[in-house]
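so i finally got all the pieces together for this one. its two components total, 436 residues if u count the protein bits. some of the lines might not be protein, just check the labels. i wanna see the whole assembly predicted at once instead of chain by chain like last time, that was a mess tbh
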Amino acid sequence: MPVRLLFLICGLVTMVFLPGCDDSLTAPSAAPFELMLSPATIPAGATSEGTVTLRVRRRIDVRINLSSSDAVASVPSTVVVPSGTMSAAFTVMTRLVAADTIARITAIAGDARQETALQVIAPVVVARPATLDALTLDASVVRGGQGVQATVRLTSAATAGGLSVSIRSSNSAAIVPPAVVVPSGALTATFSISTRPVNLDTQLEITAAYSDQTRTVPLRVTGLDRSPGE
Amino acid sequence: MSLTAFLFRAGVAVAFVALGGACGGGTTATTSPSATSAPPANPPPRIDPSTLAPSSTYTIGFSSLRENRAPFTSHVESGFTVTVISAEWISLTTYGNPQPFVEFNGPAGTTTTGELRITAGGAPFWLNSTDFYSSTTRIPYVIEGFLNSEPAFSVIDVIGNTFGAFARRTNPKSDVAVQEIRIRLSNPSAPCCANPMGVDNIVVSR
């Protein structure tokens, strides 16, 4: 009882003697304050100014809790509208990101909640076209006359038409195709390296090249009288 | 004194005393206590990067993570600490380069920022490369390095769609010593589908 009576008395007295005091912050249906961002679209790394504006001037400080839906934007945890004033400003900081991102900035006071969107525009960063990333062999030593499987890998999937990677060997003991095509949408392609019988161990290099990227891996072809690893 | 008069007087008194709590509804009608701030007693000594050189290289591969899809908040490996700054990251023990690795999910139709911080207890180190993963999207990322609490470098890039494969990116600023690295991924999930995005094999030197 005492609580209800207190609220009743308080409300009556407030209405009679304190007409400037508004209790609408307790009413979820009413929006007792506005939330605005200026600007509402900013480059990543820039700042925006937020403003909360009360609909009715109040005789007490009004503390409003703030939050951001995404780490791209950060806000102070609270902003206080001082008693007797209508609004308060706060700063929204943003971070550098590589993709446009929308952060929802939320202000809450009691049951009242306001939300607005901040669009953070990333610098123009175009996805790099696929290029050669790696060349790998399934063995680094092979007996002359036997074969080795090789794989080229791209930095991202090949686009329409595929991507042709040129291949060469530093020594005729290893025979490679002149090029291998990574099909459209694929990240890798494999090819076979055949070797000739050799009398002496032969150290050579297999190189894959595309545009300004080259990758070279060593291959040792062992002589007829030796086994790999001897 | 009549009951009415008593209630009126009491009401006035209560109204003024309890104005902030009762009439203010959910708002907190208090002012912030004045904060006293003092300069730190012993600020860390400034590091002169020209006197530093890496001696050993380590790969943070998250190999000690054992529980699949467990919440991931921080991880210590080889003296480096990886801490989640934003988004809800989880460990994946069923995939990786090799498994396990860590990822966060982006809800369908939004771009979600997921961020990790890497430190070595305040010691300087160098970031050599990182493996990035996304299931169905391109991988926009930012790497920021800090030394002496100041920005040392930032790298911004977008990796084309790898369709679920890992893409290794060497750090073009691998010669810059830092005390803190921030890896910030933007997960641009398609309108149809949520998308997992993550990292593995953070190669660092110290």
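DSSP finds one helix and 18 strands in chain A.
Chain A has a mean pLDDT of 86.
anyway lmk what u think
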